[in-house]
Design a protein that fits this description.
Elements: E1 19-23, E2 26-30, E3 61-63, E4 75-80, E5 85-92, E6 100-102, E7 108-114, E8 120-127, E9 132-138, E10 148-151, E11 156-158, E12 164-168, H1 175-180, E13 182-186, E14 192-198, E15 204-210, E16 219-224, E17 242-248, E18 252-257, E19 262-267, E20 270-276, E21 288-294, E22 297-305, E23 316-324, E24 331-334, E25 352-354, H2 356-365, E26 371-375, E27 379-382, H3 396-400
Parallel strand pairs: 11-17, 18-26, 21-27, 24-25
Antiparallel strand pairs: 1-2, 3-4, 4-7, 5-8, 6-7, 8-9, 10-12, 12-15, 13-16, 14-15, 16-17, 18-19, 19-20, 21-26, 22-23, 23-24
């Protein structure tokens, strides 16, 4: 099929009338494909014959998407009626022109990406004989749009355990299509994998984690080319692309020993801090989690209330040097009211508490993305993968199996 808008270029008048030719049920302009010969005549007394130059051949294209309500989410395919394509340009009203490839026989150009919803595209094609043709189409709009939240933030420096994490506003049923649009590149070819999980909020989420902790200094880029991807029934369409870049900071690991009631910070394998602490009271819901938790945020002084984590009215305090480790409410923070238990026993409501001075010192030195490796028997279980960034508690093979492309 052809667009109604068409431009035909000629270098000489046609020797025959223009004919309407019916191709695939659509009327298109047909042009003569053979050269027109001129009539021999005397040349200013020299007797030499002249021949009128042959007109340029006119290109004729068809486009798979047409009209004002073309279906989005499909690649754009431009087909030349005869001859070979030289260049094709498909430009949306907003954003960059689509890239694409010409087939081996030169007849068809196919875009690398799909057409986005609610967008008008202009198509211009040129063939190897100098002919050209144009077309345009508009894709239909959509009733529901899916959005997302990306972590970490753009141009940030994070710790060696920080995953790339994407939480979607609406369900993602076509996970394979979405994952194919997510491209991670690193400065040192870090091995890693996407894994799908349920966020603590109940929303769909996909994280990219390395096989092992990041190497310090690694630069990471995510290109999420999601514009035009349908996330599936009840999920809606993506109508924009996303980009984020971040850098991995110093190699820092916080080790929390629940049995010895000690917290230690190591940087590049060397001890920086080793201080007494008191973690969650064992034997019930007040116990701490074990496993690897990742520092999610440094929240400073905040109000902590026990009813927000299902512990009734046990406490309501302003807490300093608060470092969030899980969505369920586990923090490392200052807890001067619990000083009698530092280094002696676990006697908190689930958090890792220290003196004001030690908590402040730790707060100043750690960064978001640093791992807290928590060991010991006095725990209520292992940090779940969706409760903060618990992917490090899943074996590498099991994590890879969570990819939609495996």
């Amino acid at each position: 099929m052809f667009s109604a808008r068409r431009r035909i270029r000629r270098t000489a008048p046609l020797a025959h009338p223009v004919r309407l030719t019916l191709i695939a049920g659509t009327a298109v302009l047909g042009a003569t494909l053979t050269a027109c010969s001129g009539t021999s005549a005397p040349d200013s007394g020299k007797g030499a014959a002249r021949t009128t130059p042959a007109p340029a051949r006119n290109a004729k294209i068809s486009v798979n998407l047409q009209g004002t309500k073309a279906a989005p989410g499909q690649p754009v395919k431009v087909t030349l009626d005869a001859g070979k394509l030289k260049t094709v340009k498909v430009s949306p009203t907003e954003g960059k022109a689509l890239t694409g490839r010409i087939s081996a026989d030169g007849r068809t150009w196919t875009s690398d990406r799909v057409a986005s919803p609610g967008m008008t595209y202009s198509v211009e094609a040129k063939d190897t004989e100098g002919g050209s043709d144009t077309a345009d189409f508009t894709t239909a709009g959509v009733s529901k749009v899916n959005k997302l939240t990306l972590a970490p933030g753009k141009n940030t420096t994070v710790g060696i355990a920080q995953p790339l994490s994407i939480v979607f506003d609406s369900p993602v049923k076509d996970r394979a299509a979405v994952e194919k649009a997510l491209k991670v590149s690193t400065s040192n070819n870090t091995e890693g994998s996407w894994g799908w999980l349920q966020d603590y909020s109940g929303k769909d989420r996909v994280d990219w984690r390395p096989k092992e902790y990041w190497k310090s200094g690694t630069k990471v880029t995510l290109e999420a080319d999601l514009n035009g991807i349908d996330s599936g029934p009840s999920g809606g369409w993506f109508v924009r692309d996303y980009r984020t870049t971040f850098t991995i900071g110093a190699e820092q690991v916080v080790k929390v020993d629940l049995d010895r009631h000690r917290l230690a910070l190591k940087r590049d394998g060397k001890a920086v801090m080793d201080v007494p602490m008191s973690a969650g009271t064992p034997g019930g819901e007040k116990a701490s989690w074990r496993g690897t938790a990742v520092l999610m945020a440094k929240e400073g002084t905040i109000n902590m209330r026990s009813e927000t984590v299902g512990l009734g009215d046990a406490y309501d305090k302003m807490v300093d040097s608060s470092m969030r480790l899980t969505w369920s409410g586990m923090y490392a923070h200052a807890a001067p009211w619990n000083a009698a238990y530092f280094g002696v026993a676990n006697h908190s409501s689930g958090c890792v508490g220290m003196s004001d001075a030690n908590a402040a010192a730790l707060y100043q030195q750690v960064r978001v993305g640093d791992p807290f490796e928590i060991t010991g028997a006095d725990a209520k279980g292992t940090v779940a993968e969706g409760n903060g960034y618990g992917a490090w508690n899943v074996t590498w093979s099991d994590w890879q199996a969570k990819s939609a492309l495996r």
